[in-house]
Design goal:
alpha+beta; 14% strand
């Protein structure tokens, strides 16, 4: 098992050292997304508190995640339905042979 890597990232003007197994570029992308979301919220609101901006960013990111998970589930359901239809069609056609 590999040793956890440390990556220093800047989020909303503050440096954080994160440790984990993820690739450095991936951790930097995650941090950039959080930073971007916090800056968007800060520009749209009068919030002075960094913690409130962070909480709203977390809520927004969680909402994005849940919406994407729902889309994914719907796509899987559609794929399963279509697969079942194709399978039934093939079985009917094979029975004709």
């Amino acid at each position: 098992m590999s040793e956890p890597k440390s990556v220093t990232v800047t989020i909303y003007g503050q440096d954080y050292t994160l440790r984990g197994d993820a690739d450095t570029a991936y951790v930097e992308r995650v941090a950039a997304l959080v930073d971007q979301k916090m800056r968007e919220i800060s520009q749209r609101s009068d919030l002075a508190s960094t913690s409130k901006v962070a909480i709203l960013a977390a809520v927004n990111l969680a909402d994005d995640l849940l919406r994407e998970q729902q889309k994914h589930q719907e796509a899987l359901h559609l794929l399963e339905e279509r697969t079942n239809q194709i399978s039934a069609f093939l079985e009917r056609e094979m029975d004709k042979l």
